[in-house]
Task: structure prediction
Amino acid sequence: MCGIAGFAFKGGFEGGSAEHQAQAMADAIIHRGPDGSGVWVDATVGIAMAHRRLSIIDLSPAGAQPMISVSGRYVISYNGEIYNHNDIRDELRDAGFEWRGTSDTESLLAGIDKWGLEKTLKKAVGMFAFALWDKEKRELSLARDRMGEKPLYYGSNNGRFFFGSELKAFKAHPQFQGEVDRDVVALFLRHNCIPAPYSIYRGIRKLTPGTYLSIPSDKFHLPAELEPVTYWSLEQVAYQGQSQLFSGTEEEALNELERLLQQSVNGQMVADVPLGAFLSGGIDSSMVAALMQAQSTKPVKTFTIGFDDSGYNEAKHAKAVAHHLGTEHTELYVSPEEARDVIPKLPALYDEPFADSSQIPTSLISQLTRKHVTVSLSGDGGDELFGGYNRYIWTRSIWNTTKWLPSPIRSLVSLMLGSFSEKSWDALYELVDFAVPKSHKISQAGVKMHKLAEVIRASNPDLIYRSLISHWKSPCEVVLHSKEPDTILTGEIGGVCLKDIEQRMMLLDGLTYLPDDILVKVDRAAMGESLETRVPLLDHRVVEFAWRVPAVMKIRDGAGKWLLRKLLAKHVPQELFERPKMGFAIPLDAWLRGPLRDWAEDLLSERRLNEEGIFDTRIIRSTWARHLEGKSGAAHQLWDILVYQSWSQANCGSASNLH
Result:
């Protein structure tokens, strides 16, 4: 895992400043690669590439970057891991390559030398984002992995073309002038993150997963005219998988999933540095830990954090799973004060607004894990592939129940449900919890009832889904003078034509929520600690099989991830993982009324909001007042605003660069 950065200028560079500027960009992301750095510049053409190295495979100088191919044609600055790079080397055995080291970077370059960029991308199994300079064509190519595990920003600004792993690298260049895009702020308020291809800065984009973009040197100033090329499409994988469903028995499906996951975990356990795994005790992380331990001759290192608040604590479940598997388990109980101490670091850690509040415990577990290992495997992706989110089940249930009701009746029921505070719903649920079957128990009942109050008004299943994933339902009313940009969730849910409600939501989450929220959260939190994370469930061969699995093997009897549960039960007793889905949450609602109240009040003051002129002061102040009274259920909406305000204060200084 590493960090990349660079810039280009049509017509070339004058003087010797390009090397220093590229190095400054690299140094701005030193956390992504503290083990070394490098710069490569061609001043005549006008291209500068920089790299920060976190040594994982081939710790020798032979793995240093930017790296020039054996032929001398290509130069690469690369972030990620190619897990099958030794297979690529075996395939190139007869091509006459003289290997200088054992790094996957060299393997990737050799493949590009032999087969070209697109064919090599299709052969590669891994997570990556890289910049490749072709000296012969005088062309810069940017590429990103299939599922979007690794980040890559690019765009034209102030006459120069910039690219890099994080926006803070851009800001380290003296010519970069970031202009906050007001329309994108509205998009952020809907999703609590900024979905690709947009970024917070006008003219700067994110490369979408599964694509590459090639920019000739005479187009450095006009990258917007060029469209990325898709070499792998999750949408096409889903359509093809659903048209060619797995026809074997459930036992055969179980065996095939186990084979693919074992293959993925085995490939991702290769490292020349200490390695471990995040373990929450849930289905996905327990599965990864179980398969790691099954393939290891010594105890695997596993890590979890806990909270004293039982409503937000999964540590006891993780400990039980670790004990059963025989892992070398480390847990750390974190006080509310320690968790809140992360908040001032968020604007630097996530260098564009990002408001998934589970970023706080994710940052804490990354800190803990990095003290012991350099690489950690995680269980992300299981929910989106195998139907794990409650919303997949709720949407079908809500729609089947309410589609017969006239709109005025749905509105009345919504009003009644929303009239009780989250705290009141929590108290009511505690009274009946003893009578609820274990398979139907829920956590954070108040939050869920308020979500139900919002979505029950919807006139079709797609609108229920959109309501469930939207924080602010009408963000353009909140962000003054804004127009929310188009996304796949605009209109008729982006034209996604899967007929099954649950499968359609899983695909949309895989295209948006997974790469734009979950993977961003984990990448920035972990790389902020110089920790590499790997995600076995997102091996594209696992993804492709998951989309061939019939829906009945994913969601059954009101519970998701049926096939994963069956597989995990071969390694871990069911009673250790069968429990209500909790999520990686914090008591945000209570914190904003208690220890974070003064901090929030300052950021949400009427004076400040009026002076900055981006948010509708009346809406924000009204929402804040209702929240303090325990009436709004809007903690996460307010967190979006607070995160933006905190980010803006740290990165902009004033509202003068808002457009």
Summary: Residues 357 and 585 are 7 Å apart (CA to CA). The first strand starts at residue 2 and ends at 8.
